[in-house]
Amino acid sequence: MEVYNISTIKDVAKYTGLSIATISKYINGGNVLDENKKIIQEAIEALDYKRNEMARGLKTNKTMTIGVLLPSLENIFFTSIVSIIEGILQEKGYGTIICDFKEDKELEHTKLEFLINKHVDGIIMVSYSGEKKHIQSLIDKKIPVILLDRMIRGLDCDIVIADNLNASYQAVEELIMRKHKRIGIICGPENTYTADERRKGYIRVHEDYNVEIDEELIKNADYTVVSGYKALIDLWNMDKRPSAVLVTNYEMTIGAIMAINDLNITIPNQLSLIGFDNIQMARIVRPPLSIVEQPMKEIGETAANLMLKRLSDDYSDFPSTYRLKTKVHIKESVSTNI
Length: 338
What we know:
The protein has 338 residues and is an alpha/beta fold. It has helices spanning 9-16, 20-27, 34-47, 53-60, 76-91, 105-117, 133-140, 164-177, 193-208, 225-236, 250-262, 279-284, 296-311, and strands at residues 65-70, 95-100, 122-125, 145-148, 158-162, 183-187, 218-220, 244-247, 272-276, 290-293, 321-324, 327-329.
């Protein structure tokens, strides 16, 4: 049987000739002399010392884990952001516990309770239910909570979101400037913050340019491929078809493209199209797809760094709202309406 020797902080102190207090200070991110940093790190590597997070947690009441709560792990927008968050937190010694509540309000509460019972040090989440009671109780206990993508009205909480209203405003504006007047939009579910904001942007730009709104051109779907497919078919089957369509998330964009292929619609001669979120997909599709790009990298970085700030007990700017700008990339899938 192979026996493993597990080094302790005492071994590191003995190896370096420094006090345990100095070693502990270095390991926990405190300031020590540069010459001491060098010999402590050398000892850690030579002895293969691993910090005992469980024991540390008992002493500091910290578990060095962050809970991440998402409505769907099938959504490329969320998973891209989480990948960035994980990388930044890992660099600072934090692990993540990722939970998918499958857009189920009851399961959202269950998974939130699960994370609380795991004694995570903070939670980064996208709320589907919009229920604020449990989140408020965490904030009251000084457990940091960062909301992504969706605000919860009446809750003072840190939030990092894309500028959803201007995302759709700018995309539709590009179409209006190219003389499109019947513009369809495929939105997310009603009473969902992101969908409501994108719908508002669509309505506001029509009002600003004095373009009449046909309510039949506004289709509420549910952020899935199937719903995007069905909504595009519904728009195409209208007596007065749209000359252009904005699809407001990645999965629905995929569904809309599938419907366009099945209906043999020629882009952009018969229909101009703007999709959402995936620049790589925009390059693959022919003709190249116009796209609204959300700042996924910036959202992930901002959320992770804000969480680290709160974990260091800096609440000087609480609650903070970061509303990050999107970009509209117009490609060959959009033409001027004649």
